[in-house]
Amino acid sequence: MAFDPLPEHHFTFGLWTVGNIGRDPFGNPTRQPLAPEYIVHKLSELGAYGVNLHDNDLVPIDATASERDAIVSSFKKALVESGMKVPMATTNLFSDAAFKDGAFTNANAQIRAYAIQKAMNSMDLGAELGAETYVFWGGREGAEVDAGGNALDAIAHMREAFNFLASYSQEQGYNYRFALEPKPNEPRGDIYLPVVGAALGFIATLEQPHLFGVNPEFAHETMAGLNFVHAIAQAIDAGKLFHIDLNDQKMGRFDQDLRFGAENIKSAFLLVKLLEDTGYAGMKHFDAHALRTEDEAGVWDFARGCMRTYLMLKEKAAQFNADAEIQAIIAAYKVKDESLSSLSKSYSTSNAAALKAHSFDRAALGARGPGLERLDQLTVDLLLGMR
Fold first, then answer.
1. The pTM is what?
2. pLDDT in the model for residue 2
3. Parallel/antiparallel/unpaired status of strands 190-191 and 142-143
4. What is the mean pLDDT of residues 66-80?
């Protein structure tokens, strides 16, 4: 069928996403855990490309070396049997009590060193499973009480950790591309590198910035009331969109991780259009989970829904690009003036003098309507199936 996912679409899920057991801060689990091997086979049946994981999604934090090897061997067997890949791996630096006040940014040097050790071991695991992208989400890298320390120290410690781990990756021949995942808050009151722009600015200060990009998440920018499509455009413009987390979110709520397209359908459409129009070839990772109300059948309905919605919006994006009336409005909106564009494109003494001497009809410029009301309504018409 037209909207059935295929491995070539590069849809991925995390073990922690479909494996979410429905626990929340106020309630106990509502679903039984699913074995990693079972998740791999089920996602393969649904048409997914791969599965991603934190280290402890697969290997318990207190596993012995022999237990670790047995678990990994069984998981690799499931990957081979199903044809599934592990494109991305990451480290859980937020669940264990040792990280309650941060990992790489912790004021305790022993905890910072342990966090780097844990990340190296996790990177070894990811490389063994074939991962090429490594994500860092600083869920505990933040503060509720700023009086306890200096944010400059925390940022410096984070920089030291990333420089260390990048060098480790290169020395081991892993050649990871690292993707930093911004989030404004939760579980900490304030998290360092809260949005895409902050992460991009930080990356420029690293020893090997070419190895680092971003892994933006729809829900995270939306939580803060920001425009996720704008954030992705900035990441693409900087050449730093290394990975992306797709889900949905109501603005101002806790991190809901709703099914992709469940809430902000126009934003989801514009995001898919941006990714498809710019030729994004990376993984489309659904960092979301089924509602707590659902049983296992609902989990797989959730997974199907994420992929189906993306493919439907991809078709809508192609329809939008082929719609003659819509494209005519956009063409009229983007007023062209080759002479003035050539003057303002790059600075020279003569261009500056010519621009200063040019006579603009300010009243006419202010009086013109760009036609955005019509364009926006046609977009809604298209999304609602009326075009």
1. 0.97
2. 80
3. antiparallel
4. 98
Do 93 and 140 form a contact (C-beta atoms < 8 A)?
A: yes
pLDDT in tens, 291-334: 999 999 999 999 999 999 999 999 999 999 999 999 999 999 99
Could you tell me which residues come within 8 angstroms of residue 215 by beta carbon, excluding any fewer than 6 positions away?
Answer: 133, 135, 137, 179, 180, 181, 242, 243, 244, 245
Task: Give the residue-averaged pLDDT of 234-260.
Answer: 97
Question: Which superfamily is assigned to 7-317 in CATH?
Answer: Divalent-metal-dependent TIM barrel enzymes (3.20.20.150)
How high is the pLDDT of residue 357?
98
Q: pLDDT at position 171, please?
A: 98
The boundaries of every CATH 3.20.20.150 domain in the chain are 7-317
Q: Among residues 10, 54, 220, 285, which one is catalytic?
A: 54
Active site residue 230: no
Task: Identify the burial level of 179 via C-beta atoms within 10 angstroms of its C-beta, where 0-12 means exposed, 13-18 middle and 19 or more buried.
Answer: buried
- Which one from 10, 55, 57, 287 is the annotated catalytic residue? 57
Q: Return d(Cα 106, Cα 154) in angstroms, integer.
A: 7
- How many Cβ atoms are within 10 Å of 85's Cβ, its own excluded? 20
Percent of the chain past pLDDT 70, that is, above it, reads 100
Question: Catalytic annotation on 57?
Answer: yes
**How confident is the model at residue 148, as a pLDDT?**
87
pLDDT digits (tens, 9 = 90+) for 142-157: 999 999 888 999 999 9
As given in the structure block, the two tokens for residue 199 are 């992460």
Cβ-contact 259, 268 below 8 angstroms:
no
